[in-house]
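Subject: mismatched residue count in predicted assembly?

I count 421 residues in my input, but I want to confirm that the predicted structure covers every chain. Input:
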Amino acid sequence: MNVGIIGSGGREHAICHALYKSKKVKKLYCFPGNAGTANIAINIDLNLNDFEQIKNFILEKKIEFVVVGPEKPLVDGIVDYLEQFKIKVFGPNRIASQLEGSKIFTKKICEDFKIPTAKFKICQNENDAQKYLKKSNFPIVIKADNLASGKGVYICEDEVQAFSAVDEIFKGKFGKAKNVLIEEFLTGEEMSFFIISDGKTIKNFGTAQDHKRVLEGDKGKNTGGMGAYSPSRLITDNLDKKILSKIINPTLNAIKMMGSEYKGFLYAGLMIVNSEPYLIEYNVRMGDPECQTIIPKLRNDLCEIFLACCEKRLDQINIQWSEKKSLCVVLCSKGYPDNYNKDIEIKNIKKIELDENNLCFHAGTKTYKDKILAVGGRVLNFVSLADSFKESKSNIIKNLDLLEWKEGFYRKDIGYKVINK
Ligand code: AMP
Ligand code: GLY
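Triage response: the counts match. Full output below for your records.
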């Protein structure tokens, strides 16, 4: 069958790579894809805001189902739109995608269903926010309600920082703001927890921990993700049960009670405090770079899993995983997450040594004539599966050394909590 993937990051290349291995897949299309997906799929440069154009292409090329990688088209309702034309889509609908699209929507569900999360207050104007902040303890967390590509979160150490965050949000830094979310600061360790659902059945889809900050030691600015490892060092059977019973199941019930259902990946960003899980945020998609570490561990045919979800038969699938440890190091352009140069050639890319356990997923790359150019901040994702995280890391470093890309940088301490201990 012909399959389409929407997106252009490392996550989408990892998904594309897994679908390419499926016997069921005849032709793969990526909208718009990157230089990595270009090797295994047909990249089509469609405007992701133009659902009609996407729908016309899907119908014309007889694409049987579509996987949506990033959150924006999901939150904008691409699933509802394409399903009107009887196109099978793997991803949550507009209502369910509010779990990522509106932090306040999620907090209200937490309140109604007693889901453990940081204590919070929603303020509708700057005055109320300031009044509340004057009575609060610091640090405190201030968040814009809507999608802000991970940037609408401020950890404030004092009143001055907090007032300025509130001001920026109400001035529209992340789009028109009707309110801000002020949240208790939780101290613990973060973990990414994934499930997949067809609307009826849910199955675990791995755990991971990512490194969001740009500098070693988890310092500096927030980024889209500098590296990750799977499984999380925190997960135990007991914690898994608590996350499902206290957080995931009540959330999916809430979506059902709204007359809707959840189909797709659901990513819970959690803070684990003294072995208890607290929900920090939901994402209605796989994590990036967590996806790049998790998908290569999958033993099943990913196409069969996606199809089963679209056809509500996930209960019939036994998802199996490799026992190996998986680590991902993200190679970025110098200057990221601020300004960086574009259209820089990655000359030695053919020198890296890849096999089924050592993979390189592209993110911000494009092909130009016979060259591969870096066009984004996060450029390549080096992933290795091995018996230990230490071995994964050393396999990755070998390839980064072979690549010797002087215009890039990477964090050398990815996985420090699970290595050298
Ligand atoms: P979010 O976009 O909600 O995931 O927030 C981005 C990052 O801010 C998270 O990954 C956490 O590191 C941090 N963060 C968000 N909310 C809290 C909180 N209530 N307590 C502590 N850290 C938080
Ligand atoms: N790894 C963080 C994210 O995908 O949002």
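The longest helix spans residues 237-257. Marking this ticket as 'not a bug'.
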